[in-house]
Amino acid sequence: MQVDKISREYHVKSYECDRNGTLRLLTLMNIFQDTADTHASLLGVGIEHCLAHGLAWVGSNYQIEIERMPAWHEKITVESWPAAEKKLGAVRDFVIRDEKGMPIIRASSQWVLIDFVKKRPVSLRDNLPQYRVIDERALETDFARLPEPAREDHREIFKVRYDDIDVNHHVNNAVYPLWATEAVPADFRLKHTPAALEIAFKKEGLFGEEVVIRTEIDGLVTLHGIYADDDNRELAKIRIRWK
User: Which residues contact 80 (CB under 8 A, 6 or more apart)?
Assistant: First the structure.
């Protein structure tokens, strides 16, 4: 029997926390990914089905609103469900609740199903078993197109490490927002934490490449263009509202 909405309890561990004792953004993204993977498998549209049919789910967008990050030792509940479906894409939403059941993080994500060899999108309904979409949204968003940074107020360069690569042989989606939060001046980063993120994934980042992050800073809003240094191809755009 299919589980239309997944709900999992999670205890925040010390090694998942930053210097302030709260959950790292990288860990949050990985929790989203793990919850999505687990639920997709329960629905019959997960990695097992994809590997058997030469398919792969590829994330195209995230929008995240953070009331607060959970703290070390805190017990949270992660909820997720398929929230909408298009011909070539699916929307999956998330809510993270504290021990009192109050939502502290809401997120919406958009995914494309691709032919793994051809690297091209394919129709969901022609390639997946039927599953139910829940008419409920954690965030009302259409994943608006992010602009290019108008200027370069800060720049960082990172080299793609072996551990940045996932099973699809490209940079894992969780790494891009981590890079963006590091691509601000140190004094800014020490004073502020992300309150909201918009993420648009564009092209694959590969092992060994150098990646350039060009950041526009406008008060408590930063806009990040992430590019491969060798050919300037755009890997991602991220906009962060800080608090």
Answer: 5, 6, 32, 35, 36, 39, 92, 93, 94, 95
CA 32 to chain centre: 7
Residue 185: both structure tokens together? 């001046």
- Token digits for 50? 């994809």
pLDDT tens, 130-141? 999 999 999 999
Please say which residue of 87, 108, 127 terminates a domain.
127
Contact 40, 3 (CB under 8 A): no
CA distances from 119 to 108, 172, 202 (A): 24, 16, 13
Is 147 inside a domain boundary? no
pLDDT tens per residue across span 40-72: 999 999 999 999 999 999 999 999 999 999 999
- For residues 141 and 108, is the Cβ–Cβ distance under 8 A? yes
CATH (domain of 119): 3.10.129.10
Global model pTM greater than 0.85? yes
Range of the domain at 196: 154-242
Sign of CA dihedral 220, 66, 59, 126: negative
- How many domains are there within the chain? 2
